[in-house]
Every structure is written in structure tokens, then in C-alpha cells.
Amino acid sequence: MDEAPIIGLMTIVRRPLLIAVMGSGLMLGALVHHRVSAQGEARGSVTGAGNPTPAPSVVPLSPKATPKATVTLTQRDRTTLQRTFKALSDRRDFPDQIQQVAEQFLAVPYQADMLDRAEPEVLTLSLQKFDCVLFVESVLAIARAGDDRSEAGFVARMQAQRYRGGVIDGYCSRLHYFSDWIGDNQQRGLVEDLTPRLGGVTFKPRLDFMSQHWQKYPRLVGNSNNRDCVDRMETTLASQPRTYLPTASIAQHYDQLQSGDIVAIATAVPGLDTTHVGLLYRSASGGVGIIHAAPRSGVKVSRDLQSFVEQVDQAIGIMVARPSIGP
């Protein structure tokens, strides 16, 4: 049986991104994990990690609050990054390159709540453990390398995806809700939201999970400025309609999907838009599944996409976004 992660705040409320409400953020903010099912990832509530884990690498955000020492990737992360770059075949087209990179991380452990460990806001990086959104962002940042297979290029691409306009400017500059992540990245030519042309159904979720559950987010507790900015962010997002492809019709569109498409699980959980995210996976036999960071299993392939979504608690369908190499 596949584990069905729900990443909810995707902002999935992300990572408290990605975020989901099932097991873990986002989507990608303070994905406070709100467990909705035994198998999911929740970006809406903060849950404790099962085993102690090394602190993730961070890069200071803005010159306004720059620590004396700038931390980039750990040596272990650097080794992993260069090994993955070397395995990247220039002979493949971009969708296949995304899947090739994702496969390099199979069985890498899952770790929730990785992005909310530092104040002020910093760019958190890790190639040793992932939540669902961090996995997607890391894979895309590597696959988009082109001729720039440097650590600095990877870091820049990670920041460009995770923050509004690609600029780090405090807690609320992070794209906490994953539908917002898709919209902002689309505006900058990094993805295309395919859901409307796949026949997606319009819905208007009330995105207020973070403000309604602020006590579960370390960066919102005791910080009225962060809570105020979250309120403003959610008010702005409330007027934006979204579309999702209903669960029962997913398989009908398999022929329109390609390797590396971003797949976010749309949810009926109050206050959230999505609860989990991964990348479309096409097997050699022609099967259409999803490769994702699952709360109990780490990075894995769930072999049939629709069957996987059907197992996710309170899932109503999916949002699909197609990555581009970038402007």
C-alpha cells in the first residue's frame, strides 16, 4: 500500500510550504503539521521529528540581517550536489532530466518542519533529508542547472522558487501556500499551471490555516509582526480562484502529463489549498505515478497517480504545473 501524504499548507503551509495536513510544508512557511491521516504530510501544524537530525544548511536572507558568517551547503550536501550534477545526462530532454534527478534521491529520509528553525528568515537547504516541497524544489533547482552546475547557481535557483518574486524579505516573502507558489512561479516563467486546460474545476478555498492555527507555528508565536503579515497575505490570496482536476478524472488525462510535472494534492481540509506535492513519474512500462518525499518512507515512487490520490485523506483532486528550464 502506498503511503498517502497530505501536505497541507502547502504553502502547503509550508514546512512548518511545501504545508500539508497529513504528515508533515509547500510548498514549500511554518508548516505546522496538522495530522489528518496516518499517511500524509500536513503543512499546517508543527509536529516533532521522530529522530534527531543535523541542522539544515541555511543562507542568510537579506543584507538587513546578515549573520557574521554565511552558511551555504554542508560538505555532505556539496558532495551530493556534485554527484547528482555528474549523473545528469545532457542527452535527455528537460522532463526526463527532472525525473532522472529525482531518482537520484530515492530512499532519502523524510524530515518535517525544516524551514522554520531560524529567525530571521533564511534560505534553508538540505540534500540529506526532505519534506515534500523541499524535495520538489531541490530536484528542479538541480535539473535547471544547464551550464551552471555550481553551488552558487543551485542556491540562487532555490531562492528564486521559494520566495515571492525570488526575493527574501522576511517570513511572509516565503510562498507558504502551494497554489500561491505555483502562481508566483508562473508569473516569472518558471512553471505553467496546466490545471485549467486539463479541464480543471474552479474552487475558492478559504486560505486561513496559518492564522487560525498560529499557536502551532514557532515563527508566529510571540511575533505579532509575522502574524499581521500572514493575515494580510491570506486576505490577498482569498480573492484568487483556483482550479483542480477531480480525483475520479485524473487517469483520463495521463496522456497529457509528462515526466517532471509538479503534482499538488488539492484538499477539502478547512483553510488549506493543498496537502502534498510531488513530481509526475513515468515508468519504463508506461505507468503514470508520482515520485515524492513521503512521511514514513522518504523519497519513493507511488506507481499509479490516481490510486495514490484516492488514498489521501480529504483529497479532492490535483493541481498540475509544468516546470520550464527558466527565463
Output the CATH topology: Putative xylanase fold
**Overall shape:** globular
Gap between N and C termini, in Å?
A: 40 Å
Given helix and strand content, the structural type is alpha+beta
* CATH class placement: Mainly Alpha
CATH homology-level superfamily: Putative xylanase like domain
Q: How many distinct helices?
A: 8
- Helix content range of the residues, please? 25-40%
Please compute the radius of gyration using only Cα atoms: 17 Å
Compute the number of strand runs. Answer: 12
Record keyword descriptors for this entry.
alpha+beta; disordered N terminus; 327 residues; 8 helices; eight-stranded antiparallel β-sheet; Putative xylanase fold; 12 strands; two-stranded antiparallel ribbon; globular
Q: What report would you give on this structure?
A:
- By secondary structure, the protein is of the alpha+beta class.
- The protein has one domain (20-323): Putative xylanase fold.
- It contains 8 helices and 12 strands.
- The strands form 3 sheets. Strands 5, 6, 7, 8, 9, 10, 11 and 12 form an 8-stranded antiparallel β-sheet that branches. A two-stranded antiparallel ribbon has the order 1-2.
- The radius of gyration is 17 Å and the shape is globular.
